[in-house]
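Box 3.1 A note on notation
Throughout this textbook, protein chains are presented in two layers. The first layer is the amino acid sequence; the second is a token string describing backbone geometry. Keep the layers aligned when reading.
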Amino acid sequence: MKVLKFGGTSVGSVESILNVKKIVEGEEGPVIVVVSALGGVTDKLISTSLMAAKGDVAYEKEFSGIITRHLSVIEGVIPEKEKCMEVQKKTMTLLDELGNIFRGVYLINDLSSKTSDAIVSYGERISSLIIANVIEGATLYDSRKFIKTVKQFNKHNVDFEVTNALVKETFATLPKVALVPGFISSNKENGEITNLGRGGSDYTASILATALDAEVLEIWTDVDGFMTADPRVINSAYVIDRLTFIEAMELCNFGAKVIYPPTIYPVYHKNIPIRIRNTFNPEAPGTYISQERGFEEGKAIIKGISSINDTCLITVQGLGMVGVIGVNYRIFKTLAKNGISVFMVSQASSENNTSFAVRNADARLAVEVLNEEFALERAQGEISDMQAETDLATVAIVGENMKRTPGIAGKLFGTLGRSGISVIACAQGASETNISFVIKLEHLRKALNSIHDSFFLSEYKVLNLFVTGIGTVGGKLLEQIRNQQPKLMRKNGLKLNVVGVADVSHAIFCREGINLDNYKEELQKNGIPTSPQLLRDEILKMNIFNAVFVDCTASPEVADLYEILLSNNVSVVAANKIAASSPYKNYAHLKEIARQRGVKYLFETNVGAGLPIINTMNDLRNSGDHILKLEAVLSGTLNYIFNTISAEIPLSKAIQMAKEARYSEPDPRIDLSGKDVIRKLVILAREAGYPVEQEDVVKNLFVPDKYFQGSLDDFWNSISELDEEFEAKRQKLEAEDKRFRFVARMERGKCEVGLQEVDHRHPFYDLEGSNNIIMISTERYYDYPMIIKGYGAGADVTAAGVFADIISIANI
């Protein structure tokens, strides 16, 4: 025998009731079907009774709507005219009774709890009457006759001894379908109508299943089962296939409103499993809840995340609490006497403060009664006035596999820390199945996503990217991300979610992700005017988890954003050299912020496009080695120029070709002046451990200073003046079997750049095209320096270097 419970949404419309009919009639064995009021009717009954109690005659219109709703549902679910009229007649008898009660409340302007209980009972009484006449062969029972309660602490608690006996007697012989209204009960002493509280239909079903030793309790609702997190917040949340009773209880207590928490207690003691099913998707297997605890290889250690966004944290503190027996007893006794429920408690071992979480609606009363309870201690200065902090949220991670598993709490709080989320209070019971903590409400979405991602509840690990500068390098980067994304998701479980794209004039932002197939058209069509300030504001406002800002510009204003972004736990990947080569104090400050906040500031492409130079240097230093000397050709542009110059191609033509090949900056004077190489050398020297400024670098330039004056047009008009001189030098070098290389050199912090002649024995001699090369001399690699060589310019390799930095943040 099964017990099936259908909630308000499952019986809320003609379509859903017909779904219930199909589900129940498809069962082979006998079933007990428990139903709630039609969806929304209980709320309507309560609001109408309150209007009547206030003497508001508009209650009649609301009541008329309740009548119309029920009569129209009957017409929709019972096609036989004669039977439909019969059910409508029985329903109107109940509605007439209800109308008389409303009239009485209106006339005396009073609504007692007894009357209120009677009013709300009509929702289930009418819905069960309707559905009993829809399902073939159903027999209607009155739950008031066998579910009995006693009043304790102003609540109606089930008397299980009496109730179980009456249930067994009532259902000694089971019909094919027994139809029972949920929620309703009656007082054991006087027979007055009572109820089991909001969500009480679940409880009714659990009581029946327990008393009759049902094989399973099925809760039919409007979701496929318990989810790993709130799907309205986390798109990647999915249905949990199996839970233990303890896990289900923990999730219910912390906001997962799939079933009414007391439902679990009765069936737990008899090990009657619960299955959550979806009335609107009956093919879905749902969530199976039992005592069985298991761990499947490859599954997450935690089962799910629940949250309560209606949280107020109240703190009782004072030195007078330390070592004093009974303080907490007085706190919670006072709260209990005033009907205030506490759902989380946190206390320091020093005993000088106790914090607890309540609903915001209870906060004012809690502060008042506690201030009154501790009035004497407050007057003597032993205890401070009560403090209530609002606009908070409580989050809990749940899972029985957390027991005795080291590192869960560390991973949780590390994840929150890297996301820039401060934990205000936390609590963990000795059972280790739940770790709860309080954070600011504004961080709730970010916290849930970060935890879901970190504990592998999500199908993919997600990095949320903001890409600014979509010209040569940025455009290639987005193309590479688009092409590589399917493989990363399939093989590495990584999803790169581009949530922001900006060019020099427009920007678009989308938390769910931007389609990279047509982002340029979208940018032009729906982009908003952009600026560095807008980028900053939109990124911080989005407050998204695992955020990475990717700067493919050469803008000083964009580089100025790094500090605030890093301070707000947004990692930065920069092709832009300006910040890393800025005054050393600023460079060091950015690195320190990244270290303190647990995020990344990466700029590998600042010095060698896609070559792993900075990463290699960091590995050497982290292993205890010391970098003593660097020699490098760091300008792919200049190397291309010197490799291209020939008898047929003069200097000016080679410079033009470098620009057309997009090796040079838009203004090639930046390359020719050595400024770009100086920046790169300064960055390398700093990464080697030396506090170098750009002004410290000795410059031996090969283009006279006058060519850097005036406009870019002036430069192009006059640069050919150097062709003859350079051709003479080239011929001389050729005769000596030597070549020009623009070399950057650092030795123990002393830096210089300049044109150098190298012969065929030098490692730089055979450097082709726009390639870069660096020789790193360390204490370990001194006689035989380490050499890194390869493409040092070009949009594709630079974009690939940026891509590699992004991937390194994902740590795959």
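The mean pLDDT is 92. Residues 734 and 740 are 10 Å apart (CA to CA).
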